[in-house]
Specification:
Nuclear Transport Factor 2, Chain: A; alpha+beta; 55% helix; 2 domains; Butyryl-CoA Dehydrogenase, subunit A, domain 3
Length: 288
């Protein structure tokens, strides 16, 4: 027999504190304030969609809501990838220094969704390892490794800031190494712990998991860009920084963003998802 639902309610202070906490979690995971509101609204919609007896049996409703918010955010982060919307117009959480949080949130955009979630939930919100693993959908050990990798990546960026001119020079050198199919030169341009992510969106057959380590990244990247008839590589502006656009014939087949720290590439995002390349191909058609 279902337990009677609680009809005592909650103090307004607790209600507002809970909502603010959920908004902060969503904001740190997504980096977009308007979408955070939508996520929290969806979490509450799912809460009220539960049977009364189910809700009454949940000992920690707030934990359930945090887990739900985290799950919704990961669903949204996965298809968005590195080319998703940035932080334009977003306001930092109320209880954190604006300049610091904005810089950190921009840096978080360079992480994979799982790394970002593990880092945010562990380091920013100090959640228990089991709760982090439950939200991210990995084991506790894997979440510890994800958070550690995220920390290392963020420290690397802050320790070795890169000017626009440095970024441009390194990316053009990578472009030349790829054009020449020169693995020695390409490996030298990568950080030892460099990572490449392939976003096919389930629409093309590509590597599902990220590839780590300079030599492995070199092999996977050169395999992807292997010289074939009608395949060309061009340096172009990608998300306001120099990137590499790959064309097969007249069609844009991949857009590659590179994250540079100092004089080395630390992360590469190769977007091959045709849905995300539509605006590139439309722009090409308009220019031709």
């Amino acid at each position: 027999m279902d337990q009677e639902p609680d009809d005592h309610g909650m103090p307004i202070a607790e209600l507002l504190d809970e909502r603010r906490h959920l908004l902060d979690v969503a904001y740190w995971l997504l980096g977009r304030s308007q979408e955070s509101d939508d996520v929290v609204a969806e979490a509450y919609r799912r809460w009220y969609g539960l049977p009364d007896g189910h809700r009454a049996r949940l000992a920690e409703p707030r934990s359930w809501l945090v887990k739900t918010v985290g799950g919704i955010c990961l669903e949204r982060l996965a298809p968005a990838g590195p080319s998703g919307p940035g932080l334009v117009g977003a306001a930092p959480p109320r209880d954190l220094d604006g300049a610091v949080s904005q810089a950190l949130l921009q840096a978080l955009d360079t992480l994979s969704p799982a790394e970002r979630a593990a880092f945010v939930l562990n380091d920013v919100f100090r959640m228990a390892p089991g709760a982090v693993a439950d939200i991210v959908g990995r084991t506790e050990r894997e979440c510890v490794e994800l958070a550690a990798r995220a920390r290392h990546s963020l420290r690397t960026r802050w320790a070795r800031p890169t000017t626009r001119q440095q970024h441009d020079r390194v990316v053009r050198a990578v472009h030349q190494a790829c054009m020449a199919e020169n693995p020695t030169r390409l490996t030298a341009l990568l950080a030892p712990d460099a990572t490449v992510f392939f976003d096919g969106g389930g629409k093309v057959r590509t590597l599902i998991r990220p590839v780590h380590g300079a030599r492995r990244v070199t092999r996977s990247l050169l395999t992807l860009l292997a010289g074939r008839p009608h395949t060309t590589l061009h340096c172009q502006s990608v998300n306001s920084r120099t990137g590499i656009v790959v064309r097969y014939g007249a069609e844009v087949a991949a857009v590659i963003s590179l994250d540079v720290a100092g004089d080395h590439v630390v992360q590469i995002w190769a977007v091959l998802n045709p849905d995300k390349l539509r605006h590139w191909n439309r722009a090409d058609a308009q220019e031709s």
